[in-house]
Amino acid sequence: MGKLILHGMKLSPCVRRTFAVAAAIGVEMEFKFVDLFKGENRTPEFLEINPVHTVPILEDDGKYIIESHAILSYLVNQYGQDDSLYPKDPFQRAMVDQRLHFETGIFYNRYGNLAIRIYMDDHPKFPQKDIDALYESYDYMEKFLSKQKYIAGDHLTIADLCCISSITSAVLFANISEERYPKISDWIKRLSALPYYEETIRKDNAEYLEFLKGILTQKNGSSNIEIY
Ligand SMILES: N[C@@H](CCC(=O)N[C@@H](CS)C(=O)NCC(=O)O)C(=O)O
In the prediction, which pLDDT does 1 show? Predict the structure, then answer.
C-alpha cells in the first residue's frame, strides 16, 4: 500500500467524512491543507486534477479521486478488511448508494443553500422556505431510521459516516430535538460513541460551527440565524 494523501480543509463536512471512514477501516491518510479562502482550489495545477474545484481529493499512488462519496466507497473497496461498511451484496449496496445519493442530492444541497449565504452575503439572512426544506430532509432521515438502527440498514456503513458529517453541521440552521426527531437523536448518540468520532467528526465540526458563527457575528453583529 502506497501513501494516501487527502487534500482538503477539515472545516469541510465532506473532508471530515473521509477521515471517519479511513479511521473506521484503520487506514492512515496524510493531510494536505488546501486553503479555499485563498483560492488554492482554483490554481491551474488544482484545476488540472479537479476541474470542479472542490475538496476533498484523495491521492493514492499518483491517482486522484474527487468527490467524497466516491472516496468513501473507494477506501472500503480498496483497503477495507471486509465489506461491512460498503456491502458487496447488490441489494444492501443499493441501499447504501441510495443514502449516499440522498445525502449529496437532497440533504447537502439544502444545507449548502443556507451555508453559502454566510460566505457570500453582506448581511446573511435565511429564507424560511430553505429552513423548512432542511427540516423536511430531517423528516426523510427520521423515516429512514424508523425501522432500523443505521441509515442504510441494521449495521454501520459509509452512508452513516457520510450523513453524520453534514447533519451535525446543519444543526446551526435547524435544531434536532429529541421530541421531534427521536430516531435521529438516538442515531447521533450511537455514532458519537464510535472510538474515532471525537477526533474525526466532533472536534473539527465544533471548530467549523464556531468559524461560521464568527463570520455571522462579524457581518451581522450577532451569531443568531436571522430568518425572513
Ligand atoms: N459533492 C462534493 C461536494 C464537495 C464540496 O462542495 N466541497 C466544498 C467544501 S465543503 C468546496 O470544495 N467548495 C469550493 C468550491 O466549490 O469552489 C463532495 O462530496 O465531495
Answer: 74
